[in-house]
Amino acid sequence: MNRKIYYLSILLAGSMLFLHSCKKDDVAAPVITFSISEETINVRAEETIKIEATVSSGGNVSQAWYINERVVSNNNVFEYSFDTTGTYAISYKATNNVGEVKKQYTVKVAAPIRVGGSSAFVDTLFEFLPAPGQFINKAPGNLESAKGIVGKTGMVSLGAWGGYVIYGFDHSVANKDGNDIDIMGNALPEWSEPGIVYVMADDNGNGKPDDSWYELAGSEFGKAGEYMRNYEVTYFRTASANDDVAWQDNKGGSGFVKKNNFHKQAYYPDWITADQYTLKGSWLKSKLNLSNPGYVTNLPHEWGYADNLTNANGGNKVDISNTVNAQGSKVNLSAIDFIKIQNAALGDGVGWVRCLQKLPALKTCIFQNNKMI
């Protein structure tokens, strides 16, 4: 229904008083549509955000865009790039003489993609924390071996379940179509020691792996009885170097990392001063076959793990697109800066990593993007 508003006008002419009314139609409140409807926007620093507000009705409308209550634009287009990481509030307000329309966005700004380096190999060792094992406290299970992978091929033992190593690249590794990283191992056709791969983006831009780790889901991910998240194992210091290393898990299990006659040094890492330490992560059911003591096998899983024989050169290619968060939900990362390899099997085997190498590969790898070179 068209409403009418009557205005009272008073005109004085001598001693005469004239009264008359005038009619005016209402103007509707603004009707606005936005080019980005999602209320949360994820970008990297220095990437441009562009949002357009289209006024479909409302007559003469005043518009304003704000960042944390600071006006940055007075037209219908918001176009801006953030220089630093963090969480920001973007708001929009359109007003006319009848009403107003508001829109709120939350912008999460991650660190920019680093493009300075060009090495195909990892560039920096950040942490090496193996579980007890037959090669720990000697090559290839010591800190020197872990450092030996930086910038070239090398070998490092991760010990029993949960042992891990963390490296960084000299540039951000982009998430492109297909596999992005090649991890070399020493697996054999009937002996694999699967390691789960985790990746991290340098969201806060400080060059350290202190943001969120994301697991790369492999072929066993989510399979009941074959895969388990939030697994923990505690290892206990031995009284002497000749003793087996006891362990207990958070599921009521226990056992020993057993000594053998070929490696007689202490298996508990000698640089760990505590009498016990706990490792946490995801668990894979081992395919260890002990039925023939003279020929023990541990068959590989289908795909997605380190030191898990799947191609001719012993390498394992992984795809950043397979990232999942701590709740097991898929995450879309545009690039990563850090990588973590963790032994995922619990048994009489040792986790290994020989070479971490970004694709496209150098001559040390014989596969590139799933094609022979």
- List the uncertain runs: 1-26, 357-373
> In percent terms, what proportion of residues is strand?
35-45%
Largest sheet: 6 strands, antiparallel
The Rg value, from CA coordinates, equals 31 Å
Tell me the series of helices and strands, N- to C-terminal.
EEEEEEEEEEEHEEEEEEEEEEEEEEEEEE
DSSP strand tally: 29
* End-to-end Cα distance: 75 Å
- Number of helical regions: 1
Main structural class? mainly beta
Domain tally: 2
Helical coverage, percent range: under 10%
Oligomerization category of the chains in this entry: single chain
Instruction: Identify the overall geometry.
Output: elongated
- Output the strand order for the largest sheet: 11-13-25-15-16-24
> What value does the average pLDDT take?
84
InterPro entries: Ig-like_fold, PKD/Chitinase_dom, PKD_3, PKD_dom, PKD_dom_sf
Pfam families: PKD_3 (PF16820)
Organism: Niabella ginsengisoli
Protein name: PKD domain-containing protein
Give a written overview of the molecule.
With 373 residues, this protein is mainly β. The chain has 2 domains: 31-110, Sandwich (Immunoglobulin-like), CATH 2.60.40; 124-372, no CATH class. 1% of the residues lie in helices and 44% in strands. The protein is built from 1 helix and 29 strands. The chain has one helix at 143-147; strands at 5-13, 16-24, 31-34, 40-44, 48-57, 62-67, 70-73, 77-81, 86-95, 100-110, 124-129, 156-159, 164-174, 181-184, 195-200, 214-216, 227-236, 245-249, 254-257, 276-284, 288-289, 297-298, 315-318, 323-324, 335-343, 351-353, 355-358, 367-368, 371-372. A 6-stranded antiparallel beta sheet has the order 11-13-25-15-16-24. The protein has a 5-stranded mixed beta sheet with strand order 4-10-9-6-7, with no helix packed on it. It is elongated. The N and C termini lie far apart (75 Å). Residues 1-26 and 357-373 have low confidence and may be disordered.
